[in-house]
């Protein structure tokens, strides 16, 4: 069946396996997320019982190879992210934090012993991970982080704080990035280690069906084996962030598509002046603009996915995708909300929930400004971050 938003037969560019993945994840979203998401969002509930179900679908660390990970393609991962975010950004964020951040950190930078110990259990949903990079005073500039790890004999001792850390209060392990006398290093920190404290941030207007936390690290003592041996400097966390940013490029198009389809259906059923809203020129113009941007965003995501699969993906490709698709998706969701009138501010309809969530998605893993400057640096050869 042709996608309602597909003006350009984009489906013809997808393989049979990619289409099968889309239907599998979409079915899960339709059955498990859509009937419950308004209640989860209103009551700020992250449904932990679906973690094992997501693992059963092969969604955790799905793009990673070996160690019990699913080993799916970049485009398959992107499609899964899109379908999950059509349900809710918070649920896609869980998969991103678990797989693209915490698991990727271990997969890219860990020792064989660390990979064998953690990755199979994380892929199975038995262990949840989080990724501690951002700090209260270090968001877009992680190089100014104050968390510090010092050597004490054969151990490491970490002190500092992190903020906006997804899943930290329910995670069993945290990937913590800290300054050391040898530059920025990453550590696997079991969250039951004395001195580790995660506190959920509760007063949120966005991502309410997700968990973000403050972390305090007070004399957290770790053995030498906690250090990720192959990560040194900010390149370590940035390589993980690029994995998460890639998923966002696809994911936000799911939120946009769901909002667009909601607006189409509503405009066809809602009568104004004895005529469906869909019959008015201004309505059709809005729907056309939404559909065009969804199609352009999908083609952008797909091209970036094919570059990733070919081993040709560059950081500026990711910045182009995240900047454009987040910017356009949030506009689509806001315009869809406006088309619903007063009904659009209720949780009966998805666009305003999506728009609120996208305020977070647009901010994390690099703000619009950061990605603009990455692209500006690529175009001009002149870094303008300071």
From TrEMBL:
<feature type="domain" description="Acyl-CoA dehydrogenase/oxidase C-terminal">
    <location>
        <begin position="232"/>
        <end position="379"/>
    </location>
</feature>
<protein>
    <recommendedName>
        <fullName>glutaryl-CoA dehydrogenase (ETF)</fullName>
        <ecNumber>1.3.8.6</ecNumber>
    </recommendedName>
</protein>
<dbReference type="InterPro" id="IPR009075">
    <property type="entry name" value="AcylCo_DH/oxidase_C"/>
</dbReference>
<keyword id="KW-0560">Oxidoreductase</keyword>
<dbReference type="GO" id="GO:0050660">
    <property type="term" value="F:flavin adenine dinucleotide binding"/>
</dbReference>
<dbReference type="Pfam" id="PF00441">
    <property type="entry name" value="Acyl-CoA_dh_1"/>
</dbReference>
<dbReference type="Pfam" id="PF02771">
    <property type="entry name" value="Acyl-CoA_dh_N"/>
</dbReference>
<dbReference type="GO" id="GO:0000062">
    <property type="term" value="F:fatty-acyl-CoA binding"/>
</dbReference>
<comment type="similarity">
    <text>Belongs to the acyl-CoA dehydrogenase family.</text>
</comment>
<feature type="domain" description="Acyl-CoA oxidase/dehydrogenase middle">
    <location>
        <begin position="130"/>
        <end position="220"/>
    </location>
</feature>
<dbReference type="InterPro" id="IPR037069">
    <property type="entry name" value="AcylCoA_DH/ox_N_sf"/>
</dbReference>
<keyword id="KW-0809">Transit peptide</keyword>
<keyword id="KW-0285">Flavoprotein</keyword>
<dbReference type="InterPro" id="IPR052033">
    <property type="entry name" value="Glutaryl-CoA_DH_mitochondrial"/>
</dbReference>
<dbReference type="InterPro" id="IPR009100">
    <property type="entry name" value="AcylCoA_DH/oxidase_NM_dom_sf"/>
</dbReference>
<dbReference type="InterPro" id="IPR013786">
    <property type="entry name" value="AcylCoA_DH/ox_N"/>
</dbReference>
<keyword id="KW-0274">FAD</keyword>
<comment type="pathway">
    <text>Amino-acid metabolism; lysine degradation.</text>
</comment>
<dbReference type="Pfam" id="PF02770">
    <property type="entry name" value="Acyl-CoA_dh_M"/>
</dbReference>
<dbReference type="GO" id="GO:0004361">
    <property type="term" value="F:glutaryl-CoA dehydrogenase activity"/>
</dbReference>
<dbReference type="GO" id="GO:0033539">
    <property type="term" value="P:fatty acid beta-oxidation using acyl-CoA dehydrogenase"/>
</dbReference>
<dbReference type="GO" id="GO:0046949">
    <property type="term" value="P:fatty-acyl-CoA biosynthetic process"/>
</dbReference>
<comment type="pathway">
    <text>Amino-acid metabolism; tryptophan metabolism.</text>
</comment>
<dbReference type="InterPro" id="IPR006091">
    <property type="entry name" value="Acyl-CoA_Oxase/DH_mid-dom"/>
</dbReference>
<dbReference type="InterPro" id="IPR036250">
    <property type="entry name" value="AcylCo_DH-like_C"/>
</dbReference>
<feature type="domain" description="Acyl-CoA dehydrogenase/oxidase N-terminal">
    <location>
        <begin position="18"/>
        <end position="126"/>
    </location>
</feature>
<dbReference type="InterPro" id="IPR006089">
    <property type="entry name" value="Acyl-CoA_DH_CS"/>
</dbReference>
<dbReference type="InterPro" id="IPR046373">
    <property type="entry name" value="Acyl-CoA_Oxase/DH_mid-dom_sf"/>
</dbReference>
